[in-house]
C-alpha cells in the first residue's frame, strides 16, 4: 500500500486498536512502510494542518479530485509543498491527482503565509514547529502545557555553565505557569524550586539536536522522575547504591550524579544498575556512558534483581536501594496534550471516496470516511506520545493487570528490604493507581521482611526539603485492600503523608507519579538476604512472558480480586503456598 494510503489507514484506526498513535504505528508489523516514515509524515502533516486545511479548501481540491479524502489531501499537500515531493511513482494515481493542482496549491500556500503575516517561509516554519499555530491561527494557549524538563548532568557540567552556554540569552521566568503557556520560540527557563539542577523550559522546545543534549550535559527527565534519587538522599556514609530496575537509566545517572556531588567528585561510591531486559540494558549502558557515569555505575545487563543475593561480597557496602519497577504507566504524559489534525472540509454534495486497495470495496461510511463522517468533524485528535516511555500504558484488563503488577512490585520491594546493609529504599512508580502505590507501601510495611528487618516509612518531616515541601501527598482508598491495615487512623494518615504523589495535567507540570521511602536503623536488621530460590522460581513461573510492552493476560475474565494485606503472623516464606498469580502472596 502506498505511504499515503497506509498513513490514512493508521489515522482511521478502523480496527479500533487502543494505545497512542505512536504505539499503534510501531506495534503493527504488517505495514509496508517503515514506522518512522509513517510517524514522521503524520506528525509533520498534523503540525502544518491548520495552514494546509485552509490552502486545500481555498484551492477547491476536494471538489475536483473525487479520489481524495480530506486526510489524503492533507498528507499529499504536505509532501508536495513542504518536502522534496510526493513519495510515489510518477504515474501513481494519488501523485497525478495532487500534481494537477501544484500551481494553485503553491499560490494559496503563499497567500496563507502572507495572511498570517509571516514574511518568509522560514518564519512560518518556526511558528509551526513551536506549536504557535496549534489552535488555528491562535498562539498556543494551553492551560497546563507539559514543560520540557531538563536535568543538568552535574557529572559533566553545572547549571551556571549551561545557563551561560546552551541557554545563553534565555531569561528567567517568574513562575511555572509562564513556562507552561509559552511557545517554543520564547526563550525562558525556570530553575525548579524543589529539585536541584533541574530546569523547566517551554513545552514544545526542541533541544534534541543541541550539543548539550547530544554530549550528555543535559538529560530530558520529567520533574517527578527526579524525585526518587533525590529522595534517597545518598551521602558518603550510605556506601554503595543499587538501582534495581534501571533502564533507560534516568534515575541511575541522577543517583550517580548526586553521589559524586556529595563525595566532592571522588566517585568512590558505586552504583549497581540491574536491568532484566537485555535490549533495554543496551539503552541503559549507552545512557550511563553518555552521562559520564560509567566509572561509577556497574550495569547488570539482563540480570533479575529478584535473584540478586544481598549477602554477596560485592554488595557488602550497599546502603541504599532505588526501586522503580515496571508499572501500568498510567501517569505518563504522552505529550498527550494531543496534537490536533485539522482536516479540510468536504464541499457540499461531495462524498468521501474509498482510500486505498483495501478500501476499494468499502461503501461510503467505512474506514477513513467513516471516522471522519461519524464524528462529523474536521478535527482529528491524535494522542502522539513522542516521549521515551518508561512504560506502555495499557487500559485493557486494568484490574487484573494491577493485581499482577502490584504482586511483582511488592516482591521486589520486600526483596530489597532483606539486603543486610541497606538503610534506605525508595519505591516509585509512574502510576496513578492506589494498588501500585500506597497499596504496595502498606503491604510492604506489614510484611515479614519489614518487620524482621526493622523497616519503617521515611516520615515527611525527615525528608529532604524539596520533597517535604511538596504538597500532594499519598491517599487512602478504603476497601482496596482485603484485610484492613492493622493500625490506627493516625498512623495511616502519617504513612499517607509520607508518600508523595504527582498528578499529570496540573499547574505543577509533572507526569503522574508516586514515591515513598523506607528507612531503618541498621542495628535492628537481621542479616538474612539469600534469595529464596523457591520464591524466585515461583515468581518466574508466574511472570514468564511478561514484558513492559505486553498486557498480562489473566486466564478468565473474572472480577479482579482485592489485594490482601500481609500479616506478620502468617508471613513465614517457607510456609507460603504455591499458587498462581491471581492471589496475592504474603511476603
Ligand atoms: C519503570 S522502568 C525503569 C525506569 C528507570 N528507573 C528510569 O528512570 O530510567 C522499569 C524497568 O525495570 C526493568 N525490570 C522489571 N523487572 C525487573 C527485575 N526483576 N529485575 C531487573 N529489572 C527489572 C524493566 O525491564 C524496565 O526496564
Automatic annotation (TrEMBL):
SUPFAM superfamilies: S-adenosyl-L-methionine-dependent methyltransferases (SSF53335). The active site is at residue 430. Keywords: Methyltransferase, RNA-binding, S-adenosyl-L-methionine, Transferase. Residues 138-521 form the SAM-dependent MTase RsmB/NOP-type domain. Belongs to the class I-like SAM-binding methyltransferase superfamily. RsmB/NOP family. InterPro entries: MeTrfase_RsmB-F_NOP2_cat, MeTrfase_RsmB-F_NOP2_dom, NSUN5_7_fdxn-like, NSUN5_RCM1_N, RCMT, SAM-dependent_MTases_sf. Gene3D superfamilies: Sun protein, domain 3, Vaccinia Virus protein VP39. One of its GO terms (biological process) is rRNA base methylation. It comes from Bimuria novae-zelandiae CBS 107.79. Residues 346-372, 546-587 are annotated as: Disordered. It comes from the Eukaryota. This is S-adenosyl-L-methionine-dependent methyltransferase. One of its GO terms (molecular function) is RNA binding.
Amino acid at each position: 500500500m502506498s505511504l499515503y494510503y497506509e498513513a490514512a489507514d493508521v489515522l482511521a484506526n478502523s480496527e479500533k486498536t487502543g494505545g497512542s498513535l505512536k504505539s499503534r504505528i510501531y506495534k503493527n508489523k504488517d505495514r509496508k512502510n517503515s514506522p518512522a516514515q509513517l510517524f514522521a509524515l503524520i506528525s509533520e502533516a498534523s503540525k502544518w494542518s491548520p495552514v494546509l486545511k485552509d490552502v486545500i479548501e481555498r484551492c477547491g481540491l476536494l471538489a475536483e479530485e473525487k479520489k481524495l479524502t480530506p486526510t489524503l489531501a492533507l498528507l499529499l499537500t504536505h509532501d508536495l509543498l513542504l518536502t522534496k515531493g510526493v513519495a510515489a511513482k510518477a504515474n501513481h494515481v494519488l501523485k497525478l491527482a495532487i500534481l494537477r493542482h501544484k500551481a494553485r496549491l503553491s499560490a494559496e500556500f503563499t497567500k496563507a503565509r502572507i495572511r498570517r503575516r509571516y514574511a518568509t517561509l522560514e518564519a512560518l516554519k518556526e511558528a509551526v514547529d513551536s506549536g504557535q499555530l496549534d489552535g488555528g491561527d491562535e498562539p498556543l494557549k494551553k492551560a497546563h502545557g507539559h514543560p520540557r524538563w531538563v536535568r543538568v548532568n552535574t557529572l559533566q557540567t553545572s547549571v551556571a555553565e549551561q545557563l551561560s552556554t546552551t541557554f545563553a540569552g534565555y531569561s528567567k521566568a517568574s513562575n511555572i505557569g509562564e513556562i507552561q503557556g509559552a511557545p517554543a520560540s520564547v526563550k525562558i527557563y525556570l530553575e525548579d524550586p524543589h529539585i536541584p539542577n533541574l530546569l523547566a523550559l517551554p513545552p514544545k522546545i526542541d533541544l534534541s539536536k543541541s550539543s548539550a543534549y547530544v554530549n550528555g550535559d543535559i538529560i530530558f527527565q520529567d520533574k517527578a522522575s527526579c524525585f526518587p534519587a533525590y529522595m534517597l538522599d545518598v551521602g558518603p556514609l550510605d556506601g554503595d547504591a543499587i538501582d534495581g530496575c534501571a533502564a533507560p537509566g534516568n534515575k541511575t545517572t541522577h543517583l550517580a550524579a548526586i553521589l559524586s556531588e556529595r563525595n566532592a567528585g571522588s566517585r568512590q561510591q558505586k552504583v549497581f544498575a540491574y536491568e532484566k531486559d537485555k535490549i533495554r540494558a543496551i539503552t541503559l549502558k549507552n545512557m550511563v556512558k553518555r552521562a559520564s557515569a560509567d566509572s561509577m555505575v556497574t550495569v547488570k545487563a539482563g540480570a533479575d534483581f529478584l535473584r540478586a543475593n544481598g549477602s554477596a561480597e560485592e554488595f557488602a557496602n550497599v546502603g541504599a536501594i532505588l526501586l522503580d519497577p515496571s508499572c501500568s504507566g498510567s501517569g505518563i504524559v504522552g505529550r498527550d496534550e494531543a496534537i490536533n489534525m485539522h482536516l479540510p472540509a468536504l464541499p457540499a454534495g461531495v462524498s468521501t471516496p474509498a482510500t486505498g486497495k483495501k478500501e476499494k470495496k468499502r461503501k461510503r461510511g467505512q474506514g477513513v470516511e467513516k471516522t471522519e463522517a461519524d464524528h462529523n468533524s474536521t478535527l482529528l485528535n491524535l494522542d502522539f506520545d513522542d516521549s521515551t516511555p518508561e512504560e506502555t500504558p495499557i487500559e485493557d484488563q486494568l484490574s487484573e493487570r494491577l493485581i499482577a503488577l502490584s504482586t511483582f512490585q511488592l516482591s521486589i520491594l520486600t526483596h530489597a528490604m532483606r539486603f543486610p546493609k541497606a538503610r534506605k529504599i525508595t519505591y516509585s512508580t509512574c502510576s496513578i493507581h492506589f494498588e501500585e502505590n500506597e497499596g504496595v507501601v502498606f503491604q510492604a510495611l506489614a510484611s515479614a521482611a519489614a518487620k524482621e528487618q526493622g523497616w519503617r516509612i521515611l516520615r515527611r518531616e525527615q525528608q529532604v526539603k524539596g520533597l517535604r515541601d511538596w504538597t500532594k501527598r499519598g491517599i487512602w482508598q478504603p476497601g482496596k485492600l482485603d484485610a484492613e491495615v492493622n493500625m490506627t487512623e493516625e498512623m495511616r494518615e502519617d504513612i499517607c503523608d509520607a508518600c508523595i504523589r504527582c498528578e499529570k495535567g496540573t499547574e505543577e507540570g509533572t507526569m503522574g507519579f508516586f514515591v515513598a521511602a523506607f528507612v531503618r536503623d541498621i542495628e535492628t536488621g537481621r542479616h538474612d538476604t539469600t534469595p529464596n530460590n523457591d520464591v524466585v522460581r515461583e515468581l518466574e513461573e508466574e511472570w514468564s512472558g511478561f514484558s513492559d510492552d505486553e498486557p498480562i493476560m489473566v486466564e478468565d475474565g473474572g472480577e479482579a480480586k482485592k489485594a490482601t494485606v500481609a500479616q506478620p503472623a502468617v508471613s513465614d516464606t517457607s510456609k507460603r503456598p504455591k499458587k498462581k498469580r491471581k492471589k496475592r502472596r504474603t511476603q
